[in-house]
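Lab notebook, bench 4. The sequencing result for the construct came back, and we need a structural model before the next group meeting so we can plan mutations. Quick request posted to the team channel:

Model the 3D structure of this chain.
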Amino acid sequence: MIRNFKYILILCVILIGSFYKAGAQSIRAEAKLDRAVIMIGEQTQFHLSVQFNAKDKVEFPLVTDTIGGKIQVVSTKADTSFDKSDVSLETIRKTYVITAFDSGDYVIPSYAFHAQGGDSKTVELRLQVEPVAVDTTKAIYDIKQPLAIKYTFWDWLRDNWVLVTGILAAILIIGGVIYYLRKRPKKVEVVEEPKPVIPPHIAALQKLTDLRDRKLWQQEQIKQYHTELSDVIREYLENRYAIQALEQTSDEIFASLRYMDIAEENRNLLRQMLILADLVKFAKEKPLPYENEQSMDNAIAFVNKTQQYVQPPVVKEEDKK
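Done. Here's the predicted structure in token form:
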């Protein structure tokens, strides 16, 4: 019985150790160099990678700008992938481009990765930086001076073609505008001769003559006849005496002419013509034929007797010469 118990205890220890080993192997870190030997100033790539269970969290070691004090880190690139045969395994890779400017044998230290399933460390790597070989049997030469390159006009034109094209385009545009302005047809200014100013009495007499020749009242268009007759006289009064005769009633016209220099007999001529016109337009009065003719005669007589006489200009003797 005791012997069997010992066997069972030994078996449990073996199983526990196996599980512990499996857990310790659940994270695997690796470090490698593309080239272990480089010349001064040359570059190579340093790779750090770790494979672990995707459910775990891994602390990636910090790599500074320099490794070991002499190796310079130029750039860094990170990449993550999963195992095709087992997607539960995740791999993180970081690639560092490194270089060194002093010859010697340098050690890249071991880096430790920490995860829930355990820790893993990379191995130390060695980087050999070789100096540039110098042939001491040959003489030392001075620094070579820069070569003088001939810079032609075509070289300048090739370097400044945008500027030259812009200047030529501006010249063409300006020249085109000048040519257009000179050759375009010039507008001929038509000078209209001033129309002669017709005196108010001449215009009124002409309209009265035309109205008489149309014989409106003889064609039973009595209202139209007296309306046009009064409009001609109202327009004459407005131009002759500067009153708003076209917009005033007959009474308002007489009130506006109260202080005008108009003889009483002429006022009576105007009164007869305007009052008869109002009776025809508003009271449907039907005047006799002689009354129609009398209104025309009175209108013509009023215009002739109240026309404004214009003093003819005085011609000087020197103007005659």
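The chain has a mean pLDDT of 83.
Will bring this to the meeting.
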